[in-house]
Design a protein that fits this description.
Strand 1 (233-235) and strand 2 form a beta hairpin. Helix 2 runs antiparallel to helix 3, helix 2 (33-69) runs parallel beside helix 5 and helix 5 (126-172) packs antiparallel against helix 7. This protein has helices spanning 3-27, 33-69, 77-99, 102-120, 126-172, 177-182, 184-215; strands at residues 233-235, 243-245. The chain is elongated and about 75 Å long. A two-stranded antiparallel sheet has the order 1-2. The chain is mainly α.
Length: 246
């Protein structure tokens, strides 16, 4: 065999070996890593939606309570109390829906991280490997910035619902001005719990928005459109000064 032909054969065989190894890198995996990323994006977007719904339901429940205990209430107390019970039920259901976003989101994040870390070992370029590892670390931090306040929001929602449940129980047999006056401090505390919940939900929504903007696949995000600026909403509270909610 001529020397030139021999070296050519070696190069060809090396190329085939390289292609075979590269094929095994991709064949050994199931779903595309981008599909995992897209799944996590969907889970984060769902959490953002449930946070928004949670703000609405908790505020509506508190407004319903304040409406029937207001000094100028002139409606049907029985009907008003039934509305309060319904508001509590909706608040409890929404708290459960919010909590149910945690496990799918965490599971999707684990899939993304596991697939990404597995791919790091397949790089031939150390520079590319390091850049990918840096992006993985940044993406993980961005995800944790969503999960942490979301878990705190779930706990805050539970505290609010516990307080709301106590108020509903209290008023079931004692809905009159004297009874309401006796729990004025508790009404103030419950209002503060809802405010704290609202803040945690807002933090979660902001973090979720940041994550989606940073991790959205090409073509999924309109980068030219500025994010909408929410209008301030004035929320009236019985026995308290009006406050401006974000």
């Amino acid at each position: 065999m001529k020397r030139g032909a021999g070296w050519g054969l070696v190069i060809v065989l090396a190329g085939l070996t390289s292609c075979s190894s590269l094929g095994r890198v991709f064949d050994s995996k199931g779903d595309s890593g981008l599909e995992d990323v897209d799944g996590l994006l969907g889970a984060v977007e769902r959490a953002h939606l449930e946070c928004e719904l949670s703000r609405n339901e908790s505020a509506a429940a508190l407004d319903t309570l304040h409406a029937i205990v207001a000094p100028d209430f002139r409606g049907d107390a029985i009907q008003g109390y039934a509305s309060l019970q319904l508001a509590l039920e909706r608040s409890l259901e929404q708290a459960a829906a919010l909590r149910e976003t945690l496990e799918p989101m965490a599971s999707a994040a684990q899939d993304v991280a596991a697939s990404w870390e597995l791919d790091l070992a397949a790089y031939s370029s150390e520079v590319m490997r390091n850049k990918s590892a840096t992006r993985l670390a940044e993406t993980t931090d961005a995800y944790l910035a969503v999960e942490a306040p979301l878990r705190q929001a779930c706990q805050a929602f539970d505290r609010f619902n516990i307080g709301l449940t106590d108020h509903v129980l209290y008023l079931e047999h004692d809905l009159n001005p004297a009874a309401v006056s006796a729990i004025e401090d508790e009404l103030v505390l419950l209002t503060e719990l809802q405010r704290m919940l609202d803040e945690e939900l807002e933090r979660s929504m902001l973090a979720a928005g940041d994550y989606v903007r940073g991790a959205a696949l090409s073509g999924q995000l309109d980068v030219t459109a500025p994010p909408p600026i929410p209008e301030p909403v004035v929320v009236a509270r019985a026995g308290l000064r009006d406050r401006t909610a974000p």
